[in-house]
Design goal:
Layout (H helix, E strand, L loop, with lengths): L1 E5 L10 H9 L2 E4 L11 H8 L3 E3 L2 H5 L3 H9 L2 E5 L7 H12 L4 E4 L4 H9 L10 E3 L2 H4 L6 H12 L4 E5 L1 E2 L4 E2 L2 H9 L6 E6 L7 E6 H4 L9 E5 L5 H11 L10
Length: 257
Amino acid sequence: MLTFIGLGLYNERSITVEGQAALRAADRAYAEFYTSKLIGTTVEDLEANHGADIEVRDRAGVEQHPDDILEAAETEDVAFLTAGDTMISTTHVDLRLRAHEREIETRVIHGVTAQTATSSLTGLQNYRFGKATTLPFPYAHGADGLPASVTNTIDDNREANLHTVVYLDIKADREEYMTADVAADLLAEQYPDLVGVVVARAGSPDPLVAAGTMTDLATKEFGDPLHLLVIPGELHLLEADALCELAGADRDTLEIA
């Protein structure tokens, strides 16, 4: 059995009760934190809190060399842990399909995702979010200006009056996390007057939500990571009220239906 367990968003207590029970019952536990990371805890604290030894794998150890994980799952109960909801990343879907090729039974125990938490914290309606995108560090994509993958997603969503989640680049091996002010500064080159909403530390005891134009957000600090940005589409009245009340938005800057 190979059980994929989402750890939630912040620390060792963010896991569901069902996930905790499955982790404690597993014979082996593996984890990856290169797609995202629990900022509020350490692997050692995870192990101590859940009574499990956890082997952390790098990208190659999951995507290119997962045979030992799969071999173990043929005869033992194996847990595979990730931050957030475990099936959001395609690398985990690939691992699950490899398990099925070997006729290994799998199951998924979900965790809270950044996108659902973002909808909850901002008051933006979840069904009005379009395709998400990731803003990379400039050195990571090697081109001048914003990548087309980012601008096309923002522009297409706005044309359809949908909100855009902009995930911010993570280089977990270097402990480097893009912050919202850096992201806003990059986006301000093309979208200086566009309103964005910062969501920082979702799932933690002190989440922060702040709205402003990209030019404005680029001048502020939002504390410890993880951060993301939302670019709203045209807003329903209730959504506009929520951004003003929960994120300090200036109503005059909002596009309201």
